[in-house]
Write a structure and sequence with these properties.
about 450 residues, alpha/beta, Rossmann fold, TIM Barrel, 2 domains, 6-stranded parallel beta sheet, 19 helices, about 15% strand, globular
Length: about 450
Amino acid sequence: MKVKFILPVLKEASDSSFRALKYSMFPPIGLAVLAGFCPDDDVEIVDEHIEDLSIDDEPDLVCIQTYITNAYRAYKIADTYRSRGVYVAIGGIHATTLPDEAKAHADTVLTGPAENIFKEFMEDFRNKHPQPFYHAFDVDFSNAPLPRRELIKKEKYLMPNSLVFSRGCVNKCSFCYISSFYRGKKSFYTYKLDKVLEDIDRFDGKHVYFLDDNIFADKNFSADLFREIRGMKKLFQGAITVDSILKDELIELARDCGMRSAFIGFESLSENNLKSVDKRSNLTENYAHAIKRLDTLGIMINGSFIFGLDDDDKAVFKNTTDWAIDSGITTATFHILTPYPGTKLYDNMKRAGRIVSGDWNLYDTRNLIFNHPNITRDEMEEGYANAYKNFYTWKGIISAAKQHEKTKMKLKHFTYSGAWKKFNPVWDFLVNQNMLGNMRKMIDITMK
């Protein structure tokens, strides 16, 4: 049987401002896991961010993963295949949030973590009685297969050695999609440790990127994992929370086992803003203390910030950018607050009549799609663009690099931040020539 898994291109990745590198970072590991349920089938994984999609073939089954800004593209692909009699299944976070919308374009819709329901769906499909909906109410990853990494086109990704050992998050931030994905049920799960270690053991090279929402969410599991990978001599990156840096010595253990870069959702410098979106992991915590601790350990920071929370005014863009530079943040990711369907934030704004657009293509954290009390749409989008521009000037990069105490960290910061944002033509060339693999050793050297 021929099975084709497709990750449609995100709308923002097809715009004129498209950065080829940003969308060539990580392969679609979730689809590779689902492919593990089809060990004897003719399986193909197509990621439109790194390759062209041909839709003139006739596989037996097409499975499409949806996010909000690739939903329309996903539906167009699905409609084309179905018009020729090809069976189409749609899943992912957008289909989970709006299953009836997705069902108008699919024969089957899978909601929630597909690892729990895909096997049942495939059995039903082979027996010629698939159901219109499959819902993952009870989540158990103990029988999830390893990703079929042989199906991933490694040469096209900067960090093919990426994986997750957990799903979901223990926090309940009102703007986060995770709450809608688990529909009020338990929202955090881990895979079996031996499976995770087996997957890591298959990696070539030193660098590993954990794509978990918070690699410290289950501290006992994380500690066991870090101890086990110590002997593998890997270097890794992952997302953590401010409070997890300050509470105990897990960050030291992670550093000793290879952690060299942390993604941290600071989100806002305003405590009122943090309270308004239930960002409890940041409340009463000392950002400066957390940053200092990571700097002392030699761990770089990718800080994430949100513009457009209700306490913000027009000064937020400069204040946030200046703070990030003065704090020595190595790389920064800025977002305009986006109320995703299914979240508490969306429901509240919808009831208040504040949502001004239902065009999913605009829900990309670069457009203001609701009425803000203090900032106009033009001001918001201009301020967002200027934040990136000002943070990544050579002056900003050098100034931020100087904030570190150790010369080694100053050099790492300058090299990593400069290379990430100031050499786009070089990165574009490497992406187009399938040469990203040549840069992995340089990343290892920089991070070490």
